[in-house]
Amino acid sequence: MNNVKKSESSAGKPETKNKHMILGAVLGNNFGSHPAAWRMPHADLGSYTNIDAIVKQARSAERGGMQFLFLPERLFLQGDLSKAPPLFNIDPIITLSAVAQATEKIGLMGTASTSFTEPYLLARQFKALDVISRGRAGWNAVPSYEPVAFANFGKVPPLRENKYERLHEVVQIVQALWGSWGYEAGRPDPNGMFADPAHIRPIDLQGKHVGARGPLPIPPSEQGQPVIMMPASSGYGLQAAGMYANVVVGMPSTIQESRAIRRALQEAAVQAGRDPEEIKFVVFAGFTVGETKRKALDARRALDDRTDIRGPLSHLGAYLGLREEIALPDAPLTAAQLASVRANPQDARSILAVKLAKAGWSPRDILAHGVFEATPTIVGTAEEAADYLQEWFEAGAADGFVTNFDDFHTGIDEFVDRVVPVLRERGLFLDGYEGKTLRDHLSLPEQYGLDPRIANESTGGAL
Amino acid sequence: MNNVKKSESSAGKPETKNKHMILGAVLGNNFGSHPAAWRMPHADLGSYTNIDAIVKQARSAERGGMQFLFLPERLFLQGDLSKAPPLFNIDPIITLSAVAQATEKIGLMGTASTSFTEPYLLARQFKALDVISRGRAGWNAVPSYEPVAFANFGKVPPLRENKYERLHEVVQIVQALWGSWGYEAGRPDPNGMFADPAHIRPIDLQGKHVGARGPLPIPPSEQGQPVIMMPASSGYGLQAAGMYANVVVGMPSTIQESRAIRRALQEAAVQAGRDPEEIKFVVFAGFTVGETKRKALDARRALDDRTDIRGPLSHLGAYLGLREEIALPDAPLTAAQLASVRANPQDARSILAVKLAKAGWSPRDILAHGVFEATPTIVGTAEEAADYLQEWFEAGAADGFVTNFDDFHTGIDEFVDRVVPVLRERGLFLDGYEGKTLRDHLSLPEQYGLDPRIANESTGGAL
């Protein structure tokens, strides 16, 4: 286990201690996060169901030394299929199991809801993935909330507190099952025991919603058990992340917001009796990188050109405070228009849009800057992308980033070939993998079984 | 689809119509079905969790043109780990997803219980495997019954009829979800729609135990949807197999028993309004093959030597009707002993054991013949193995076989290199794959979605 770095630096201030940023890549429908990515001439139209497409993307991320892939999910069909493919992978853990076979180092993080699958099966599938990938698996544990998701299980959503009651039970039982084949059971001895049954014991946990006797017949992986990721949240969700998460993923818009989330998480970890350093906070960032800013903007415009941008243009006009529809989207705003623009000081996107308008960018170019993306988006040169990541990282806004790309067919390679070398030159990103497991890659402490600090605490009566 | 053979021969008698037998390989703990396989000097001690071990076995089976791999499961820890590894794979569908990536033609059949997982997730995982393997997936759908399995889900087993009530609901919902992204939705058109939403519709099925709204956002695979396998059973289980199964797997001891099961299955199919030819019946057969019968017996004895055979010897003595313990296990029975042996005419194993004793085989060699195996076992030359398969196949006892091996590290290669060529010479087994999908390999009819004959019938009020 590559924990040396952690202990060396653990005396430093939490927000500036990391020497190297963590980089993950979110993968979705194998086309890209832009709704027109599938319409590009270079796109393989079968990518949504073509395992080769995601294997290629995974290998690109691995070539760039990225620490993990992240496959989110939705338990229902989202969006209008006449316009774009579903945004998410067909099935994260099935896909990751195949990707495990086609990669060697990169971490494999997949989402699975705590609301529907029995913990015995969740524990078995993620530990099996961890074992076949030789210690590279991670589980993004999320409670479902959407009524359309519950409808796919013949159910209606529970109250928020009940949702988290089940999450606590599921995560605790899964972790206990993961640890139920003890290290002390030993390795197979051809002249003795295959394993010592004295150290492979039932867990006998029964909650209000779920239960399991155990043990789970899977020995430790190279990293012991999978890493646990959770989404940044508040209230019950923040408390759960403080208790269980090794990694938390968030979507803040600004450095300030990101630092606040990170601080709240660290407090939640302390509340749960854990070292705040044990939680890595990673945030989403989207990229379209080009040789020049103009080329990057044109790459995004090639995508926008394949969608109906009347809606976004009208939205932008309203956002800038313009009274009339934008008639000439390719021309910079006129002096009269510029005189009337107003930014909403509470809205980072609005501030950015106004700034770009004042700098002379045309409405189409403002849109091409990705101002309406759900997460911060960088459209520009490799140096601009690296500047952005460096600023957030050095400000203690995050331990790392989950990169996202408009076009997966080209985006990851562009990032790996252009941005990663700049980050390495600046000493911000490791040159290759130092360890072998996802836990190594994230400098996480060892854990096997249910964290004894949690196991010994009252957990709100969940178990 | 390779259905030509089927229609050409469908006028013939059901029990002799097939020209070529189906061959599958059951894979378990990656060591072998003999409890001492892991102790052999050539065994990699890490095989239970080493994906490379099963990939090697899968590739051997594919090299031999076998139609499918079959991964059973148990939802609990079975057996004494001090003596042997668990008999079953760590997680069938996770393992098969990795194996999909390392193979190209062979079918991938995995067991998943209908008792615990929600149908939306079963449907999603198996269809995702089907899509990433380009139409090679199969689901062995079984209801769980063991109290120890239910304990791993914090539950107690239901009554038998309720168990099947849930199975009907789960299988019908899974199949309906599989078909919910209609073929008519079309292929992505970069100048038009990604898919036509008019043909991707909710299924809105709600049963007593489970339900789902749908649709499942996964387009058809190369074979449409996964193949469904079920175990040979009676009563409720037989009825369900008649309704849903494309393949049924059984463990009969004799040709007569096997023919009776096959006939009952065909009747159950007719009862369900299906063509009896649509159900392929495959039976287990275990093999240790050697250059000579002596070498094959010695290979098994090398395994037996690594276990305590006092128990089996004592069992054999009682089985043969001997009054005293067997003192000289390596010597043929004496004339006095032979005079007292009696076969139980109702028990095929007993008949075989007595026959072998009378032929002069020593008690250890009788055990090495595999007389106490749960399924028929052939220990001998390639010709003897082929004779056995030919006899069963030509007697209409089965459409094919699920091969099993004492030692997976050597058994599959021995079978592929020695037995398969003999079967091909005799015109009993295809030389390579004619089609691309599991449905092709099994000469199964096309099916997409819930079989309309089932969908339109009353199904005992399950849905």
UniProtKB/TrEMBL annotation, chains A, B:
GO MF entry, a single one: monooxygenase activity
Highest taxon of source: Bacteria
Flavoprotein in keyword set: yes
InterPro entries per the UniProt record, alphabetical: Diverse_substr_monoxygenases, Luciferase-like_dom, Luciferase-like_sf, NTA_MOA
Domain Luciferase-like: 43-397
Assigned keywords, A-Z: Flavoprotein, FMN, Monooxygenase, Oxidoreductase
PANTHER family named in the record: ALKANESULFONATE MONOOXYGENASE-RELATED, C2H2 FINGER DOMAIN TRANSCRIPTION FACTOR (EUROFUNG)-RELATED
Family recorded in the similarity comment: Belongs to the NtaA/SnaA/DszA monooxygenase family.
Name of this protein: Monooxygenase
Organism expressing this protein natively: Saccharibacillus endophyticus
Taxonomic classification: Bacteria, Bacillati, Bacillota, Bacilli, Bacillales
